[in-house]
């Protein structure tokens, strides 16, 4: 039985069906009761209620669990409380008397990037590594789906701010497949970083999006200041040596907008 946190998020919505299609039985954690049909596949699926912030319901959520895929994060709060949430999850698993394999999704470069969210993610990584359970940490670069969402919001304005920063985006569906592989495999500690097939400047990413969506917007250069800006411009969040993703940004856009 596999417990998935963050099951209703960008990755979780793709990961759960990837697991059930492989025949895995999945329990999905939610702060509120949820219903609806399962994702299909030969594996079973059920929602369970639990709160990573308070710890309520976690003992029941981890009962009988062999693997925990921890994909939940306080993205709106820049990762605030993520390390504490990871600790509560691990402690609940230990109280259950089992030693589940914890698979954690992280970001490339978190150990070298001063951004607050990256540092919070790194702290959560360290919590899991020190938790005493078998674990696998998978770092990836930015996902197409998140860039798409950002550009969709930004392009509501006639001017779109674009920093001169490289990105190595990849499809969250490919990340879900990778996470499903890890969840059904042996613990690895730190897995190989996963990046997209190409490194692109943010301006090229934005221009390709505007062409695909038929929007005409002014791209305005934006300089990200301070240490975070220098780290982004240096590409700390990329891994050109690990181009494990197959789908390109252009292919993603064509599938989403040019059908």
TrEMBL record:
The lineage of its organism: Bacteria, Bacillati, Actinomycetota, Actinomycetes, Catenulisporales. Residues 6-139 form the NAD(P)-binding domain. SUPFAM superfamilies: NAD(P)-binding Rossmann-fold domains (SSF51735). This is NAD-dependent epimerase/dehydratase. GO terms for molecular function: protein-containing complex binding. It comes from Catenulispora acidiphila (strain DSM 44928 / JCM 14897 / NBRC 102108 / NRRL B-24433 / ID139908). InterPro entries: ComplexI_NDUFA9_subunit, NAD(P)-bd_dom, NAD(P)-bd_dom_sf.
